[in-house]
Every structure is written in C-alpha cells, then in structure tokens.
Amino acid sequence: MELQEEIEHARSLAPSYVLLQSNPLRQLISRTTHDAFAGRRSVEGFLEFMGALIKDETGVFRNHSIDIRLLFINSLKSKDVQVEALSELKLDDNAAARLATRKANINAMVKGAVDKGILTIADAKINFSTQLLQDNALIPSKIMFDRRLVRLNTSMLYKQNKFNLFREDNVGYAALINDLIVGSIDLPYDEYGQAPPTPIDRIPSFLQTVSSHIGIFHLDPNRVLDVLLDFYIKELLRNFSFWIALFKQSKWIEANHASLIMAHLLGYKFEYYQNYEVKNSPSELYYGCAILIKQGLVRLYDLLPYLKPNEAEMEAAKKSYLEHMNKEMKTLNAGGLSMYGALGEEGVAEILERPAPKVADDDDGEHSDYTANDVVELTKALLAVGDIYHAEQMFAKYEKLLDMHPEIAHHIYRLCDVILQPAYERYVPDAIKEKYVLFAQAAEDSKIKSEFGNTVPKMERVLVTDYMKEGCHDRSKKKCYTFFYQDWNQDLPRCETFEDLVKVFAPVMRMAGYKTYLAPNLIQKLLLIVRSIIERQNEYPDAKPYCMAIVREFLLPAVSFSNTNPGTMASVWELLDLLPYQERCALYGEWGNDFYKKTIETKLLKARTILSIKHCIRRVSRIDVRKGGRDLGKLSNSNPMLVFNVMLDTIQFMDNLAPYMADACRYMGDFAYDVLSYLLTEKWTGSQGPGRMKRKKVTEIEDVAVWIRALATFTGMLYKKQGVDPAPLIKYMIHRLRHNDSVDDLVLFNEFITKLGGIELINDALTDHQVISSASSETVRSEAFQPLSSDNRRASKRVLSRLKEALKADNAALELVVLLYRLKESFGQEKVVMAQKLGKKIDFVQRTIMQFMELLTQIFEPPEYATLFPSAVTLVKEYDLPESLVMQLIRPITRYNLHTYQGPEPSPDEPHPAFKSLIEQVPQFISDPSVLNIITAEFYVIFWQLSLYDIQVPEEHYLSSMRRHKNMIAQCQDTRSEFYTSNRPSVVSKTERQSQSSLEALQQDLPKHKKEVEHVMEVLKASQARWFPTDADRLPLISSIIQYCLLPRSIASEVDAVFCSEFVLLMHRLGVKNFSSLTILDKVLSEHLPTAVLSFTEYETTIHARFIYHIFAKMSEWHKDEQVYLKGAHGDGLIGFQKKWNVQSSSQEVAKEDLLSYQEFKRVTHKWHLKTSLAIEQALLSGEENQIRNAFLILRQFVPYFPIIREHGQVLVKATLELANRGDKDKLSILARSYRAYVEKGRSRWITKNAFLGIEEPEPEPAPRTEKLTATTTTTTTAATTTRSKSTSPPHNDKRDSSSDRKRSRDEQSSHANGSKRVRHEDEDRSKRDSSGNRHRSAPTTPTARERESARESSTRDSGRGEGTTRESARDSPRESTRQAARDSPREPGRVRDHARDAIREAARDSARAPPKELSARDSRGANNGGSAAASRKRERTEDERDRDRADKRYSREDRREERRDRDRERDRERNRDRNDRDTRDRTRDDRNDRDRRHRRR
Question: Is the pTM of this model over 0.85?
Fold first, then answer.
C-alpha cells in the first residue's frame, strides 16, 4: 500500500474511533510502528506517515477529537519499554544482533521525529526512557538527568512552602473572584435589571488577570479552572459565548484539543450533586457540558463515567424494560382469559390484582433524592444545542434509550424541522405557504388575545434552557421566554433537494424511531413537501422513489402510533390519494406484513390493538351496532390494517356478523375504506397470511364455501351502505375472469350487483306475473321484482354514481362483458368435468351476464350507456363476441333511438332511422352472410332489437296494480281499517305517499306504453313486406329464422323466450308476406323438444321450455274452441295457415279452402302431442341424468296443457313411477316424485284420443246371454287380462328377442279364439288393410279399428323406449314403410321436405280412418251386411274394455298403496335423521361445555 493510500485509509478510520476500546485506527498506528521497529518498514516512510497524521491538514482527527500524537507516543513508548526489558536479559548471538538492530531503529525513529519537529524535546523527555534520550543526544548525561529528575520530584512532592497556605490561597481565590466580577460590572444594565453579556474584546484582560493571580498567589491552575467553570455555568444563559471564547484562548486548551482536566472537573460537579448536595443537577450544568462538548473543549467519553446511572445500571434498566414489554406481549397474546383468575365458589371469575412494585431500600436506610437521569438530560441538552454527532454516539452507546424516554424525540424533531425547511421553501407552492403562515399568525394572535385582551403589555425577555418555552408568555409576570442558545441551528445540515430527503433528513429522523406522532407540525410540513413533489411529477420525474421511501418509513408509522388521531390519518390520506391504487396496495402490504414485526414496540402495539379490536367486535350486535362501530372507527384511525384483518377473519368464521359489521363501518374515513378494500382483495383470494395455505372456495360437495359467501355479503353491504369506491372489486373481477377457474369468484360479483342494483340473481324460473311485469313500465317491474330481503334494495344515487364512474374507467364494463363470455366459452374445452357440473357452470355464468347487463341498463341512462360499448362490428370482429350477445348489448341504444325519434316521418319504403345504421352493419359481422339472401338484415335487426315491452301492452296488469294501490290508499285513509290501527301514524303516512306516487306513475305509464307499442306496430306493418324475399323457399326460410333468431334468443332469458313466442304469433297476426306460421309452429313443436332435452343445460332448458310452452298453450286454446281458432288462425286475410304453399300462392289473398280447417288443426295438434309424448318418454327411459332432468323441467312447464290425452298420461306416469321408486334417493327421484304429484292433480282433465280429435265415443251394446257368447266372452276376458298384465310389465331389451321368438309369439297369440285380442302389429296390419280397402268409400273403419289405432299409438310409444328404432322398424305397417321410403327417397331438384304438408296429410289420413257422424245409404247397407260380425266385435270390445278398466283400477290401487308405503318409509327415515342430528348436537354441546369448564379451571 502506498503512503498516500495509507494516510487516506487512516483518515477513513477516524469516524470509527472509540476511546479506551480497540479499534482499526489504533491497530493501524501500532502496526506501522512495529513494522518500522522490526525493520520491515523504512524509518523515513514511518516518519512521513507519522508527520502527515499528526499535522492533520484535513482536520478529520481534530473534528473527531482524536489525539493522534498521543497514539504515536504510546506506540513508541511501548517499543522503548520492550528494548529496556530485553537489554537486561542474557541473549544469544542471534537475539543480541536482532535486539541491536531494533534498538537502532527506535533511536532513529525518535531522533527523526524530534529533528523534523513532529515531536518536541519536551515530549521526548516526558515519555521516553533516559537511556533512549542519551543515545539520541537529547540529554548530555543519563546519570545527571536521573539525579536531577529525582531532586525535582522530591522538591515538588515532599518539600513544603514556608508561608501560610490557608491565608495565601483564600486571599488569592478571593482576589481572583473579585477581579472576575469587577471585569464586567461596569457594563450598563437594561431596563429590567439584567446584565448584558461581557464583550469578547475583554478576554485578554481576563486571561491576564487569571494568569497574574495564579503567579502571584501560586494558585492551583486546575482549581482556577474550576472557578472559571463555575462562573461559566452561573452565567451560561447570557454569557456562554464569552466564556467559550475565553476557554479556547486559555492555556488549558492546547491546539484546539479537548481538555481532560476540564472533563474531570465537570464530572466532579456531577458527583457533588449526586453524593453531597443530593439533589438533581441544574439544567445549566447539562447545557454547559453540551456546549463544551459541541465546541470540542471536552470529550464526551471523558464525561460519561461521572454520569448517573452508570453503564451497568443503564443496561439493567434496558433489560427490565425489555422483560416488561415481552411479559405484557405474552399476556396480551394469551387472550383476555389470562387477565382473570380461576372460578370462585360462586362460579364467577375475578380480575387478578397486580402486586405493587417492590421499593428497594438504601443501604443506609435513607432514600436518595437524586432522581435525575444524567444520561437522558445530557442527551437532551446535546440535541437542544444542535449537536447531532454526539447525540448519535449517545444513542449508539445506550440502546433503547429513546424508547425508554420518548420525550427525547421532541428534541430530534425540532432539529428535523430546521433541516427540512429549505425543501419546504423550494417545493411547496407560495399560495399554500402563505395560507399556513396566515393560519399560524391567526392562532398566535388568538392565543395572545385570549391571554392579554386587546392591549398587549410590554413583556420582559427572559432566557431559559427549556427550548419548549420558546415564544411562551407569562401573563402574571409579564415575561416572554426565549431559548438562550440561539446558534443551535447554525451547524445543522440542510435538505435542499428531494434526494436529501433520504440522504440528509431520513438519518436524523431514524434516531427518533417510530415517534413521528409526537410532531404533528413536522408531519404536516413533510406531507406538504412530498405531496407537492408528487403533484409535479413532470418536473421531478426521478423523485417518486424518494417520496415513497418517506411515506413507507415515516408517515405510515406515524399513523400507527398516533393513538387514534384522525387528523394524522386524514393528512396522510390526502397524499396517498394521489398515488395509483397498485402503489397504495404495495404500501399497505408492507405496512401490514413487515412494520409490526420490526421492533418490540411495534409487536406490543399490534398485540394491544388486536385485543381492543376483539373486545369491540364481541360487543357488536344488532342493537348496539352504532356504539361498536364508533369504537372500531377510533381504532381504525391509527391501525386500519389490524382492525380490518381481525374483522374480516371474524366474519369468515361467523357469517351472521357480515351485515352488522358492514353497518358498523359507517364511522370510518376514506383512508380506512381504502385499506379495507385492499384487505378485501387479499381475503377474496382465500389468503390466510404469509406461509399459510389458501382457503378453498368450494366445498367437497361442490357448494360455495361459507367464508366466501360471508365475505360476499359483507362486501355488497359495505359498498352499498358506506359508498366505498367499488373500483377494487371491479379490478379484482377483471383480473380473476382472465383465468378459467374464476367461476367461484362470481358469487362476489353477484352479491355486489344484488346489493347495489337491487337485481337478484335468477336461481329459479320466473313466474308468469314477473314475465308480464318485465314487459311493463319501470314502476310495475320494480314491484314485481321486489327484493326478498330489505338489504337487497337498490343503493342510493351517490353510491350508484361511484359505481358508474368505476365501470366507465378504462372500459371496465366492456371488459367485464367480454371476459364473462370468454369464461363461458372456456367451459367447452373442459373434458374431464361431468356434464351436470359443466352445465351448472355455464348456467351460472349466463345468469351473471344477464344480471350484469340488467345492472348496466338500470344505472346508466341511454346516452351514457351508448358510450360504454363500441359499434356492433367492433364487438364481433375485435372482441370476438357472438352476434346474439352483441345484439343484446346494442338493444337498449336502439330502443332509445326508436322511442325518442323526433325526425321527419320515415319513408315506408325504407327502414326506420333507428334501425338503419345497424342494418348496414349486419352484413359485416354476421357469421354466415349467405343467410341474408333468405332473411333480410332488416328483419334480423328488428327481431333482435325489440323487446317484449315493444310488442304488447299488459293492460290488465296495469289496472290490477292501480287497484291494489287505490285499495292501499283507502286503507291508509280509513281510520277503522286493520292496516291503520296496527301501524304507527308515520308508517301509515309513508305508505300512503308511496302508494299515491306509484299510482300516479302507473296512470302516466299506461298511456305512454300504449302509444309506444302503437308506434312500433306502425313500423312493423310498414316494413313487414321487406322482411323476406319473394323468391325464398319456405323451409330454408323457416330454418334460418329458427337458427339465427328464435333459438339463440329463446335460451338467453325467460323474458326473451316469451318474446320469441309472442313475436312468432305477432308475425302471424301481421300476415307477414312469404311467412308460413304453420310451418314454423310445426318445426318448433315437433322437432325442438329433442334438441332441448339432449343439448341444453338445465337453465337453458327451463328458458326454452317456456318459449315452447307459450306456443303450446296458444295452440291448446285454439284447439278448445273452433271460433277462437278461426279468429286466430284464419283471421281477416291471414296467410300463415295455408295448406299449400308456393311463391305464387304467397300473396295476401288466400281462399278459405286453402287454409287449414279446424278438424285438420285438431289432427295436427294431436300429432304435436304425440311427438311431445314420444320425445319425453324416450328421455325418461334413456338412463341419462341430463336428459331425464331436462325432460322433467319441460314437463313441469307443460303441466296445464300436457298430458291431456289419457294414453300419453299413463305412459308418462309409468315412466315417472319407475324413476320415483328407484332405491337411491337422488335429485332425479325427487324430481320424479314432484312431477308425479303435479300430474296426478291433472289426471281428472285427461281425455281419450277420440275426444281430443272431436270424434264421438261409440256406445257399448249389451252382450246376448248365450252359452256360446259366454264362452267367447270368457276367452276374451282371459286374453285381455293376459295382455294387460304383459303391457304393465317393465320394458325389456328388444335386442334379446330373436326374429324366431317374435314369430313364435305371434303364432301363439293368433291361435286364440276369434274374440281374443291380437298383438299390436297384427292389429295395425288389419287396420291398415281395412283402411286401404275402404279408401274410396265414404264409410270409414269400424269402432274396432279405432281401438286398434289407439293401440297402434300406444305400441309406437313403447317402441320409443330403449332401442326404439329397431322395434319400430320391425313392427311398422306397410303403409308406414312405404311412407318412410317415399319420405327418404330422392326428391326432384328444387323440392324440399314440406313439414306442414306432411302434417296436413297425416291429419287427412287420420280423418279418413275416423267414423263420420252420418253414413250414406250405400255404406249403411254394407254395414248391415256385416252386422253380425260388427256386433260380435263390439261385444268383444265391450268385455275387453271392462277388463281393462278393472285392471286400471287395480293398478291404481297398487300405485296408491306403493305411494303410501314410500311416504311412510321416507317419514321414518326423516325421523331417524332428525333424532341423529339432535344426538349429535347434544354431544357437541356437552363437549364444548366440558372444554370451557376445563379451561376456566386452568
């Protein structure tokens, strides 16, 4: 290492130098001295190094009070002593040579130091041995020098002066004191009698006086210095600067080095007060010492040994402090029970009394009156005079000094205020500074005026040592106090830039620890600086990290220790509100997770706060929510992280507290709400803290966990009642919806929408009343969808306005819609999930989408709503949304434009202006543009943009609501009514006002609704001719309408499903050109049930079933009355029910004979019932859980109108009974029992097929009493009974029956008597042959043939079970086979299958088989010729029907018995289950009581 580097290294070690301890600087000097002594280093190099350090050009050693000369002298002296010791020993040759070399080196080192002036000759004579001095020619003779030294010591120590010491000393000291007093007595005093400070120019005369007295009276210089120190301390307040300057110029201070003697003398003064005067040292002594230490006249470590308590006592005090803190923390963490003792005899616990602290007796039996802590007082004095350096040394030496004595922090923050002032002047705007100056001046004036009134007397200026009295007034004594040391802030560093906030300001602040709550003015100034910098980030782009460090390290801890001061919290929030939410969350996370673990004080603060929080939460209940809320609000003013963490954990375990805790949060500020939002976001994820597993949001049985439901309830209530900014929840949902596992988080979103918007999630099917209300005004709709709970009512306008702002920010509303749809689509990629679970997820997301869209339409006005979403093309192309969802999003905007259109009357040949822009966009985003060649874009837009409100007016619904409100008003006005007498007058008056307001709103809504519907109808009538091209084929047209319009919208919501059915009927009533109502009805009622059963989810099936049900119900009404049918189907020029349809016949004028007749309509309706029965029966017998569930959902919708035919009902009852009687009691069995109850109620409405078709039932004829007839009847009865027993047996697998078995069965059955009943396919063949033989005759088949036709339908239904296709193909008649072959054969080019025509043909064939009411003469003759055979068959049928009736009754009785047995078994199981539950609860209660008793004993 080079010399200069070595010198710089020594200077860098200066700050770490500690007196009387081993340190790197002392070791460096010792090492260099030893190297030169041992010859490993040149003497010249050592002397240069020694000279550079002693000269101290930079002053670094002088600033740190290091006597570097003494360190080198001590090192050289140790080598001199080593040489002397070795010289007295007998050494070998090598050792003697080595000793000689080292002796020469030490001589050269000392000689060189003296020659170069590094050391004086006096230094050498005082410190080195006489032999070394003689060797270096510093003394002429060692012997003579030793002799003279002995004589001098003897003369100084043992020889007495020959004069009166007592008299001479007293006279000398008295003269000295007198001259010191007289030296400044001539100065003029002020008007208050106070002496002025002594001028500095008199210092030489004072020093001359002191020197002369010492010489004349031979006074002890140290005692003279002691006298001067007494004068210094006595005159400290007004004359300290004079005495400091005198000391610096005196001989007691050499070369600006600290005086050890002065330190000892000051220490003796402390000992005098500690041991002799026995009273606390005066404050002037502490401040005098502090100024001397700051000026470098006294070293701090020279004075510390004289202070009381000493180092050992301070260490013991620290240990006692830590033990007390740890003990209290353990007690608090143990819970409240640790404060109580064991239960007494009366079972009541009493709080334990803490033992009184023991007082230690003094050894002499007397109590010491010295109570001052010299260490603390000296530290305060050092800080008061602005000596930061030595104060840091005090804190370094005495750990926990500031924590044990927090009042020291006031002195530190006084310095920080001055350090921070330049930054305050630079960064804070002048307007704000002037405002605060004005506030401070006004406060000062107010204070003075309150003390002295309007006239302020002249005040005497009094100097004091307590800086906290600065500027204070004493009214009685008319004194104004001023701190005596006005130069205390001269040497302090200054914070000039934002970098200095961390480099200069923060180190001083750290000395005070987490005590910033003691300096509110400093916190206010710091907040203004940081806030001004953050507000001007463009000017200071690099300042943000420094500001965040200040917030993190000082401002947030100030809030925690503020002792529930709301002002501190509010001031900090004004700053934090400027930061982005993500940065605030980062601060909160560090605040909650790291801050409370840093020191023992923060840990104890956490324990105390948590105990208080739990105590408050335990007292929160329904009747004292407000009181508990106030207590929690106070606690949240200082430690919101702890308050809300404990609160949310408690809510998760006790969900019944959620609404009360949300109400208790009303007394909190914006800062607390922001922290609560952050903690809610953390708790929503299931977090339980660092290092712990997250909670599961779904239980093992796929239910939402209790804790997430409780949090959802609390969240919704909080955002609703307290108006908290909902942006965190929306951001959390946006973040979570990007993941496919976010379905469980939707419960938060649902509850949030329910609480704020009053829109409850639709879990069950809507009632007809609610569906109709959805097509009414807002008043009717709000009454119909009244929330079940009062907590779910719509929030206030203030809360909704904040919600609107959050949804509009960053396109949050659009992003939520897109992400919800993406989540729904992501389920299609899951392959492991069961179909039922997957369907539930899809339904849940779909209901959430509809709930959110309803919220948007309610809280946003249409112009505002239009700004939320881009154009339809953008939504489809860029956001990849389906056309159906896009049209739903755009619908509120289009409807608003339609109803508020004020422009010129639109042309009949052009689309309405409200639809025009969207019509132009349709070709750009529709998935299959070719479909627009079949249906026009105008029809597509009109269908998707209208709502149920636009096409019908439920006038009776309005009138019913009006009558209800009028009745309520009458009850409120009638003083004798039950409502009036059972409620308070305020409730009655409020109800009357509400009813009157609703009535007036309804009276305005009804005419408005009618007017708007009339307007829509005019638009539809004007545009219906353009909906479908004239050259479009009917079947592709109907298929396109179903695929692109009806099917997507009928599974969106129940209101949309009803709209689809009403719009189809509206199109029929409007007589839309080129539109076949019969064809679309046939396709919907014949072909769409299997689709719903197989492919739809549970919710989609419920919705779509309502669509089909409404059409089904309308057709059933037409079926009951011919006039109703003719009016609805034929109407006045309606073309929808044409039997033959082509382009030429699609005009508006259609002949009556071309329309479907009423009898034909009955046949078509029967076909629809038959198809429905087959589809439902096949689903029930499929064994697939999804199909069975969907079938029951459809059946429950169809209960009023299906089944209506007895044969269909019996089949469904049988299939339902098999499902209900399954051994496992699953959900399907419950559905089966539920539906069975419904269908049993409607059994009385069942009719036969003939009655349904309008065919008269044949009257039974009495059988002749002959033996032959009796035998025949007996045979018939036996065969009928056998057949009935077979028909009632469970269906078996047809694949097991070979063709030979079926043939043998037919042969065996054909061997019965002529009156016995044949198997189904033979009856069908004979029926078809009879029908073929009589095709050209007016007389149809006989009643026996009709019975066989009914049997054919029954067997057709049977063929639908299991392997329905195989059995049906084996038993089909030749005509059916021919018909199927013709249906499946290739058609001519340009022809497609005509479902309506097929339905009409089948109805016509059924009509041909049915017997007419009247027979022609020729048919009568034919009937007479075959009379005997007909009579025989009639008798056989009569007996057969009787046997069947008896079997039905017996079967019904067996069913009833089985039902009763099932009910009894179920009731027994319920009783056993209840008994087990009671036993379990009793055991749990007993165990809990035992644990409580054991705990109380402990």
Answer: no
